[in-house]
Amino acid sequence: MKPLLSTDRLGVTTAGRRGRPSVLLREVGLDVAEGQTLGIVGESGSGKSLTARAITGLLPRGLAAHGSVHFDGQELVGATEKQLRPLRGTSLSLLLQDPFTMLNPLQTAGAGIAESLPGPRRDRAALRDEVVRRLDEVNLPPDVADRRPYQLSGGMRQRVSLACALAGDPRLLIADEPTTALDATTQDDVLRLLKDIQQRRGMALILITHDLRVAFDVCDRIHVMYAGSVLETGPAKALEQSPAHPYSHGLLRSEPPLGHYADELVSIPGSVPSADSVGARCAFADRCQWAEDVCTTARPPLEPLGDERASACLRLPEIDLAPVAVELHGTPPPAPAASAPTVAALTDVRKTFRSTPLIGRPHTTVALQRVSLEVREGECVGLVGETGSGKSTIARCLLGLASPDSGRIDLGGVEITGRRRPKHAHTLVQAVFQDPYSSLNPSLTIGTALREAAGQGPGNSGDPAELLTRVGLPASYAARRPAALSGGERQRVAIARALAVQPRLLICDEPVAALDVSAQAQILELLRDIRRSTGMSMLFITHDLSVVRQMADRLVVLLHGEVVEYGATDTVLGDPRHDYTRQLIEAVPGAPAVPEPDVP
Predict the structure, then answer these.
(1) Average confidence score pLDDT of the chain
(2) What is the pTM of this model?
(3) What angle do CA 571, 515, 139 make, to 5 degrees?
(4) Distance between CA atoms of 44 and 514, rounded to whole angstroms?
(5) DSSP string covering 529-598, please?
(6) Longest Cα pair distance anywhere in the chain, in angstroms?
């Protein structure tokens, strides 16, 4: 098929120090035809989003693209803003990860879509009809047109963003991590919708993601990027079954399995280097277990392998990349006995939120409906459910950031409901949140942040060097600030800060949702090690069932603030009894169909 978009030796540079150009993206070549889906995968810092911005001419100030980008016969590199503006939205469009960055919080969803429609202005009735038609295309009701972004769920906001991106009827849509922040069922809905619209329109689609399961489920072909270069290309199914580069192999092995517990979660050691620092060598050599001297003397080219595949590995014929996933089924550690002391307990907890918007009528949302659960000493309890199911509200009630309307909460054998919360409650429970950067003060060094936390604990809770060593970071990191660390390193610091007061319960609220697959495996293995070595109890909140399979002894499934199923993790995921649990499992990309339960 003739490519609609084709790039040749596409690169991006910045001025760098002393006027010497610094390479950020190097010789990227890709083709995508109408009706085809191309996936671009890789860790954070690999150059995925930079490639999208270079294609669309939306590079930040100070960055320059070179090479070639042909779109429907037109050269885009070097084109002026005046030449590019008519193409954006109408011929090629960009859908971003966070819908809040695409939607104006002061505009209704309908106004945002109307603003994106091409052509002359329509009369009000015709414009309303067109907006409603566009909402219907993304499976949203007409009344969404009158709502603002904050009045919509995450999935609805992403659908509105998709409607805006498609309003100009583009021939190519570039979707940059469009489902990263969504729960499994919402992600599945959005991906199915995206694929359905693409097929109906015959539209080309470039999907950027760090979720390999999503890429394999949606894409026809995949490009694996690392340190600003493409290291492997090929059909999605072929790459899934037999990767042809050590980096692709490492990414696949880092994926936590959904179907069984793994004794060890495999990860790729180290982090992604800058493209400029590895220009004359194999970019992956420092992290590759098969690297030899030949890998550091020259940069390997992307060589064809046949069967529409290519790889940039000099040692590929000599190494064995056969084991694709975690092969052995491990044995989960024994769960604490039912007689073990209870560290935290919620009994018939009910919580409602009342909102009074600037525009519109006040409304009340029931977040929790008579929820009861307990966490025993040394136990990890998983909380799963869609966005809005009440998971984070439970965490906030335990942390004292919200008070239940009724019911009782006990922590360490002491009731902490409402005014009964003791002053030392913060030493009993601590939390690790989803975004490690926003949970750390950017103006404080790591050492200062850890000393502040340790000062709130009983006695001497540990110095920064000891806490950093405990989470696998060098003691020298105490002098750094959060901006100087990678996402995985910042999350390790957030864990160290939570451990500083030696809590009995650690609440992990989506602690790996913002991390790529290799950093995710490292953080999960760290949390498992902390639990083994300290006996600390954990409440693990996530929308990723593969992650919770590896972490939790017991699983609680929430739907609209109610507990609809609970039990041992293996039992709940292996033999679900509730239809909603079955829907969650079947929404995971690549998951097999769940057998119907036996009904006596």
Answers:
(1) 89
(2) 0.89
(3) 75
(4) 10
(5) HHHHHH--EEEEE-S-HHHHHHH-SEEEEEETTEEEEEEEHHHHHHS--SHHHHHHHHTSTTPPPPPPPP
(6) 77
